Amino acid sequence: MRDTIQIETRPQVNVSGAVVDGKLCASSGDEPQNWAENIDANPLVRARIDGDLYDLKARRVTDRAQLQAFSVVWLSGNTPR
């Protein structure tokens, strides 16, 4: 199952995310997004999931194997919690 995650960065955004190998992942898609670029500059974010707020450190994933794992979970529409 994919969930909507609210990420507090600049700007605050609602994104769809999935859990992959025990890590919360969100995709910025194929086009550059301001919020993803801001995470590169300041990786400290807050994520709101199901009403609970979490302080997290985000990072851009560039590893092909990790991106492929996300793709498999994303396309299946079924992600473990």
Concise synopsis of the structure shown:
With 81 residues, the chain is of the alpha+beta class. It contains two helices and five strands.
Which short descriptors sum up this protein?
alpha+beta; 81 residues; 2 helices; 26% helix; five-stranded antiparallel sheet
Topology of helices and strands:
Elements (H helix, E strand, L loop, with lengths): L2 E6 L4 E8 L2 E4 L7 H8 L2 E6 L2 E6 L6 H13 L5
Antiparallel strand pairs: 1-2, 1-4, 2-3, 4-5
Overview of the structural elements:
It is globular and about 30 Å long. The protein has one domain (3-76). The protein is an alpha+beta fold and 81 residues long. 26% of the residues lie in helices and 37% in strands. The protein has helices at 34-41, 64-76; strands at 3-8, 13-20, 23-26, 44-49, 52-57. A hairpin with a 2-residue loop joins strand 4 (44-49) and strand 5. A 5-stranded antiparallel beta sheet has the order 3-2-1-4-5, with helices on one face.
